[in-house]
Design brief:
128 residues, alpha+beta, three-stranded antiparallel β-sheet, 5 helices, 14% strand
Length: 128
């Protein structure tokens, strides 16, 4: 069973990355991102991280350094968090002047579809 779950996770990851690269366009209403568990979704969108997304949307920082100052977080910690969020499509990191990265939040909400009966694979689907 662990092998099946691992294969499923790798398949979902490959599909998500293909969407991010523009190689696959999901059909209308089809989830664009899968999480392996509700816990992983909750961790990514913790209160702390949602505050960070709100800060980016509201202040529109011109660099990670500026965002680190606004958020009161170290740039290295912030960079790791944003790169993870970027892999899930919750943050866009654009190239700025002199190699800076400019964070942007492309969505103002996400929808979480969760199977309550166990009839699905047990993963959480997010549809930004």
């Amino acid at each position: 069973m662990a092998t099946t779950r691992w294969t499923q996770m790798e398949s979902l990851k490959a599909r998500t990355l293909a969407i991010a690269r523009g190689e696959h366009a999901p059909a209308k209403g089809e989830p664009k991102v899968w999480f392996t568990s509700i816990e992983s979704f909750a961790k990514l969108l913790s209160e702390h991280n949602r505050h960070l997304l709100e800060l980016i949307a509201r202040e529109r920082p011109r660099s990670l350094t500026e965002l680190a100052d606004l958020a009161g977080r170290s740039k290295s910690n912030l960079s790791r968090t944003l790169k993870t969020m970027s892999r899930y499509g919750l943050v866009e990191l654009r190239s700025g002047e002199r190699g800076t990265l400019i964070p942007r939040v492309p969505y103002d909400q996400v929808r979480l579809d969760v199977s309550l009966t166990g009839m699905k694979s047990g993963s959480a689907d997010a549809n930004p």
